[in-house]
Amino acid sequence: MSSSPKDHQADAVSDTSPSGEDGDEGGPRSPAAEPAADAEREEQQAEDDEEEEELVEEQGEGIAPVGETGTAPSLFRNLKEYTRSLVSVLSELAHCNDDSIASDIDKLRPYILDEQSYMYTQSLLRSLSRMSHGSRVSGRLVQRIITELDELLGQTPSSQPFIEALRYSGKPTTDLVNAVMKISNGEVQSSDVMQLKSIYAAYKPPSAEYIRVPSFFDALLKDIFKTAGAPNLMDEKIWLLSYASAVKELPNGEVDTADVEPTAMALKSLKLLLKDLTPSSDMKEVLLQLLELSKTPLCCTAELNWIRSIFTDPAFYESDTLTGGIETPPLFDLLDEIAIQFPLQRAFILEIYAENLERGYDTVSPLVALEIKKRYFNQLQTLIKLRFGIQVFNFVIRSAASFDQSLLLHFMKQFIHISEAPYSPAIVVLATTLVSLLDFENCRNDPVIAGFLETCQESRNLDTATRALVSKELTRLRQS
Fold it and tell me: What is the pTM (predicted TM-score) of this model?
């Protein structure tokens, strides 16, 4: 792995910091230094054990470990309450035997719902396992709980990449856990950024899966692209994001960083390009540059976050281009291109459209607000063309009660206009469900809706239940 002078400096920092599960030193040391280092480590371990014992002792009887809804306190909002709640559950498990622990371990499921909570929970458990014999939770039992938690996490398919990272690189250090946790919560501090930079710039860095977390990416991207001045340690933050996005972990334990620097350069170029752009800027002038930069996945994500913020600015949605213009706003064209090039970003794009369809537009008249939302509904049709129709229809149906009936009718007619028979059975069910939510006073004489249902009824690829659903809505439409 190639490295810069800064990277060599980070190597030296990493080699003298704990990297093993039990606080083992990460690099070679001289025999003369070992007694002093061992004594220092034992003293630090004693302090850690004393803190853990105090934490258990302080745990109150009135603390509910898990709420009635089966959720734990928020790790990000109240770390102390989360820790107390976790220790309370562990105290209950202290009375379990080897036969019952496998079934009772499910009580800890709310504490491993995401990567950060899992890493924090396991970090606390490993500290507890080294406590003295007088503690309320024995070391052997905690080791069993740690093993059972790994198996519990393995039951979730979405956790498989994270589990593979654990197996590949071992348990993360406490410094790594705390830094990732705070940044993911939006607390982007220089000390944590430098800590992570030194950890991942080391000769043998931990798995990048630990920082490949959406909330981690979002927090750093917002910090880098915030409008009020240049963020501190911008180069380090860009490097962290680029490393998480572009590094390749090889089977032999080494890492390939060849794509990290080009990704960082592209992100810096995007930062420079967006610096002076405002919602009232002529986006046509920079559209081609944005399209080119969007070919870098990290820049693509950054652009989507930037567009998301632009859409919420009154200067954008009050513009003539959006409310009454004939041309499609350039940013809509950019979203269409990103949706075509990056299928995995379609869910994010739908989320952006959904936010702007469900929000209020208090600074414009109701009629203008309807026109704005029609433009966003029109954009949903692009996602439908890209075979993302099921997700689009699920959103519209789920939020139908919050939309004006004219918008729902507009969406259905636009869908019918751009699509062709035969329709997939799943789309027929969803489209028919949406028709059932329409006010028939507005659409009973509309030949487009009736024609769509008749076409579906005649389709040969529908099962009996779907055909019956279509017939029912067609009958209601004719009789209304």
Answer: 0.66
Rg (CA), the chain: 28
Q: Helix, strand, or coil here: 68? A: coil
**Number of residues written out for the chain:** 480
Q: How many CB atoms lie within 10 A of CB 239?
A: 24
Return all residues near 354 (Cβ < 8 A) that are at least 6 apart. 395, 399
**Scanning the structure block, which residue is given the tokens 């004489």?**
445
pLDDT band at 35 (very low <50, low <70, confident <90, very high): very low
Instruction: Report how far residue 176's alpha carbon sits from residue 195's, in angstroms, rounded to the nearest whole number.
Output: 8
Tell me the C-alpha distance between 438 and 406, whole Å: 9
CA distance to 18, 196, 201, 246, 403, per residue, from 243 (Å): 22, 11, 9, 5, 42
User: Measuring CA to CA, which residue among 363, 421, 430 is closest to residue 392?
Assistant: 430
Q: Which two tokens stand for residue 7?
A: 């990277």
Can you read off the two tokens belonging to residue 226?
Answer: 């915030």
- pLDDT tens profile 342-360: 999 999 999 999 999 999 9
Identity of the residue numbered 300 = C
Asked if residues 130 and 123 have their Cβ atoms less than 8 Å apart, the reply is: no
pLDDT in tens, 360-372: 998 888 998 999 9
Q: Which tokens sit at 445?
A: 């004489």
Provide the token pair at 154.
Answer: 């393995």
DSSP state of 107: G
